[in-house]
């Protein structure tokens, strides 16, 4: 690393550039700079190690991340909540929610207080594996430890319940949000609309769309396409066509998913009509 303005770079400069390299996924270059820094007698700190852990996690190398975590602890450099959260998120994305939960327990043992982002990462990991009950347990642990869930945390749990078609429990969490003064966002409503359609409740999904707009949440194209696909799959062609007009009125440009859903349902309806006409009356 070259001198900056005639001055030899120090720990702060090295850590800053290592962080930037890791964010750009230039992890090999970051490790070269890390070795150079140590060679010049600078001891890495929690910021340096956290950047490297984030870098290897972005590449899916969670084992290397754990090695770095053990290395820093061995040097009496204690990870902070950001370090742990990055590792927890990486483990969850690899489908290793149990390992992630073990890391959370380690956080607590070390006296580091996990935040809502950390807990949410573990919840998301369990939901990705279809273990929504475990995600709910983690949610309850978060609440019991005085960490207030936010809209993002609720959305993870609601999405988890919708994926396993437990729409009633998803709606319970939705109502709980409102009781706690949290305002559901577009993601919340879109997820529930999809869940209602999957459980053959398209009329309720339409009502939820109206409620969403009443409370000031603007549906986006994904919201509309989710509902339109659900209406088509449940043979609600008239409602789907009416919704298509709403999409255009809202100034949104329908994508191929919207057109495919409509075309498929129209063809099915016409095929059914032709079969009915061809069937002689007894």
TrEMBL record:
Keyword annotations: Repeat
Keyword Repeat tagged: yes
Pfam families found in the cross-reference section: PPR_1 (PF12854), PPR_2 (PF13041)
PPR repeats: 10-44, 45-79, 80-114, 115-149, 150-184, 185-219, 220-254
InterPro entries membership: PPR_rpt, TPR-like_helical_dom_sf
SUPFAM superfamilies on file: HCP-like
The family this protein is said to belong to: Belongs to the PPR family. P subfamily.
Name by which UniProt lists this protein: Pentacotripeptide-repeat region of PRORP domain-containing protein
Species of the source: Camellia sinensis var. sinensis
